[in-house]
Automatic annotation (TrEMBL):
It comes from the Bacteria. NCBIfam families: PHB_DH, PRK12429.1. GO terms for biological process: monocarboxylic acid metabolic process. CDD domains: HBDH_SDR_c. Belongs to the short-chain dehydrogenases/reductases (SDR) family. It comes from Massilia glaciei. PROSITE patterns: ADH_SHORT (PS00061). This is 3-hydroxybutyrate dehydrogenase. Signal peptide: none annotated. One of its GO terms (molecular function) is 3-hydroxybutyrate dehydrogenase activity. PANTHER family: 3-OXOACYL-(ACYL-CARRIER-PROTEIN) REDUCTASE, 3-OXOACYL-[ACYL-CARRIER-PROTEIN] REDUCTASE FABG.
Length: 264
């Protein structure tokens, strides 16, 4: 029986009931990690999802529906992780929301919500995860930033501010843990064909009278030179690398996987 790299370790992946978070959770489960899922959705569908992943990869799985904008619920999720799994060894901060508007039209409550979920939640999870990781002298914190942690786009003030902030938090966390077995890094994806992005493709197809493929090509052509979407599986493989012995001295990076977006 082969020993998987993350056997006996537990990964908490926020926003992992679909899209990028689910792709990363599956990649970590494939390496033997127990997975604590987090996210909203139909309770029966989520239960089936996490149980199926557990059976497929032979790991323990569970779900906690903490609202990532509420520090008290995040704390309750960590207490649950401690009870169920004995703590969190790999923390993937993936939960995120988006709102698009010019700054002068941007509703203040939407700004607060984007900052709370895309940035502040990662601070709360990190501060709760670090004591246990330092005690074991092993841990991996992976923050899902975005190309928007490295460059800006019009009408995305809150998202870009939050993702730049997440890259900054990554660097500080890496420096504070530099002489320990804990690392912290950020992944900065370009366009990924998540349900959220497919909606933008559908809107574009409807508005411009395009087929699905043509609408995808038009969306990609604006920003992503490869003309191809990044996949959740590719992002999952990068997360696995960060968790591997080869990633032990990768500390505080903002690693873009963006089809050349930020090379322009």
């Amino acid at each position: 029986m082969k020993t998987s790299m993350l056997s006996g370790k537990t990964a908490l992946v926020t926003g992992s009931t679909s899209g990028i978070g689910l792709g990363i959770a599956r990649s970590l489960a494939e390496q033997g990690a127990n997975i604590l899922f987090n996210g909203f959705g139909d309770a029966i569908a989520i239960e089936k999802l996490y149980q199926d992943v557990g059976v497929e990869f032979g790991v323990e799985t569970a779900h906690h529906n903490a609202d990532m904008s509420k520090p008290a619920e995040i704390a309750a999720m960590f207490a649950f992780a401690q009870d169920k799994f004995g703590g969190v060894d790999v923390l993937v901060n993936n939960a995120g929301i988006q709102h698009v508007a010019n700054i002068e039209d941007f509703p203040a409550e939407r700004w607060d919500a984007v900052i709370a979920i895309n940035l502040s939640s990662a601070f709360h999870t990190t501060r709760l995860a670090l004591p246990g990781m330092k005690q074991k002298n092993w841990g991996r914190i992976i923050n899902l930033a975005s190309v928007h942690g490295l460059v800006g786009s019009a009408q995305k003030s809150a998202y870009v501010a939050a993702k730049h902030g997440l890259v900054g938090l990554t660097k500080v966390t890496a420096l504070e843990t530099a002489q320990t077995g804990v690392t912290c890094n950020a992944i900065c994806p370009g366009w990924v064909l998540t349900p959220l992005v497919q909606k933008q493709v559908d809107d574009r197809a409807a508005k411009e009278g395009l087929g699905n493929d043509a609408a995808k090509k038009a969306l990609l052509a604006e920003k992503q030179p490869s003309g191809e979407f990044v996949t959740p599986e590719e992002l999952g493989a990068l997360a696995v690398f960060f968790c591997s012995p080869a990633g032990a001295q990768v500390r505080g990076v903002a690693w873009n996987m963006d089809g050349g977006w930020t090379a322009q």
